[in-house]
Write a structure and sequence with these properties.
The protein is an alpha+beta fold. It has one domain. The chain contains 15 helices and 8 strands. An 8-stranded antiparallel sheet has the order 4-3-2-1-5-6-7-8. Helix 1 runs antiparallel to helix 6, helix 7 runs antiparallel to helix 10 and helix 10 packs across helix 11. The relative contact order is 0.13. Keywords: Membrane, Transmembrane, Transmembrane helix. InterPro entries: PepSY-ass_TM. This is PepSY-associated TM helix domain-containing protein. Pfam families: PepSY_TM.
């Protein structure tokens, strides 16, 4: 009786959310290796042009921002910078303005451009209209179905909840009544010699079982992205279990050699973390707000970081966050992106995430075929 009710729930949730789950899973596959693909296919953007005499020191960031903005249309402003300590990498200057209430992708971004600059010479190598970038479109399709944040984000969020319930009800429906050798074989292996209906059932049933862990992981981490309230609840609840006392830190003096706080802060962070993978800076226009500089220590990982905050009046550090001294809840949520895209364990976990996402994309298709076959069969009985 319980299984019958769960089957009904599984069927209808699958039919309601199937198309969204298919789109989100397929786009998830594409985004897993987007960084590697873009670096390989567009080296002119991400790597500095080879020169015989490459200066050893970078142009001050404040000057580079001005150089980048000069290549944009009037009114378009740089709001974020990605700095790479590697000597052969360009720095990326982003100019973004969004309309949160607009419905379609074409209206969601007023503008979104990336300017790729050689930081040692100030030479602008590429100005990209990121709004038309393939992977940006795929990412927006993954996050909000190209329907804008106000509507599409919520639709994807609730479909993710349905997917989590589908995964849990699916394992109950998969569970064999009796653990006999034949049922065990049928439950854990696919009979590729079977007829099409049976083969499709095996693909749905067996692959669904093997992808369960990743499906729930994708759903959980996806919900953290979709619903900030959910993230806050998880973080607060886990933090309450952690008795770690916040450390009282004394910050070193930051020399004010350059003319701007931003330049001095960046110089200090680069000198402190010369082996960092990437620095990310969201430019603060309000001088009353501290200027943040996030340091990503490992390639393709956001969960191993330092985050410096500089007073924009005197240039000194006001706060320093680190993945090393976070409470449990904050540490878990800081790993959310790495878990979601599979970068938590390097290339091997990314491959697993890619394959699991591909399997998740197949489940709505095989599930729909199972429903369609049963629907046709019941219609024949009634006629």
């Amino acid at each position: 009786m319980v299984k019958k009710k769960l089957l009904w729930l599984h069927k209808w949730l699958g039919l309601i959310s199937g198309l969204v789950v298919l789109i989100v899973s397929l786009t998830g596959c594409l985004t897993v290796f987007q960084d590697e693909i873009q670096l390989m296919t567009h080296p002119e953007k991400f790597y500095t042009e080879k020169q015989n005499l490459q200066p050893s020191k970078t142009v001050p960031l404040s000057q580079l921002i001005g150089i980048a903005e000069a290549k944009l249309n009037s009114g378009e402003l740089i709001s974020r910078v990605e700095v790479f300590p590697e000597k052969n990498r360009t720095w990326i200057f982003r100019a973004i303005k969004i309309n949160k209430d607009d419905f379609f992708y074409s209206d969601y971004f007023t503008y979104y451009k990336r300017v790729f600059v050689n930081p040692y010479t100030g030479n602008v190598q590429v100005v990209e209209n990121t709004k038309e970038n393939f992977f940006q479109i795929v990412l927006q399709l993954h996050m909000n179905l190209l329907l804008g944040k106000k509507y599409g984000h919520v639709l994807v969020g609730f479909s993710t909840i349905f997917f989590a319930v589908l995964s849990l009800t699916g394992i109950v429906l998969w569970w064999p009544k009796k653990w006999k050798p034949k049922t065990i074989k049928n439950s854990f292996s696919i009979n590729f010699k079977a007829k099409s209906k049976r083969l499709n059932y095996d693909l749905h049933n067996v692959l669904g079982f093997y992808s369960l862990f990743f499906a729930l992981l994708f759903a959980f981490t996806g919900l953290v992205f979709a619903f900030p309230v959910f993230k806050k609840i998880i973080s607060n609840q886990l933090n309450s279990l952690d008795n770690k006392e916040p450390q009282k830190l004394s910050f070193p003096f930051v020399p004010q050699k350059a003319t701007t706080v931003l330049d001095n802060g960046l110089d200090y962070v680069l000198a402190t973390h010369p082996n960092a993978d990437q620095l990310s800076i969201r430019l603060e226009k309000d001088i009353a707000e501290p200027q943040g500089v996030q340091v990503r220590m490992e390639k393709n990982r956001t969960g191993v970081f330092y985050w410096y905050y500089f007073d924009q009046k005197n240039g000194q550090i006001t706060e320093l966050k680190s993945s090393n001294n976070l409470q449990l809840g904050s540490r878990v949520t800081s790993l959310n992106y790495d878990l979601h895209v599979g970068s938590i364990g390097g290339i091997y976990t990314k491959i697993l995430a890619f394959l699991a996402s591909l399997v998740c994309a197949s489940l709505p298709i095989t599930g729909f075929i199972i429903w369609l076959n049963k629907y046709k069969k019941s219609k024949l009985r009634k006629s």
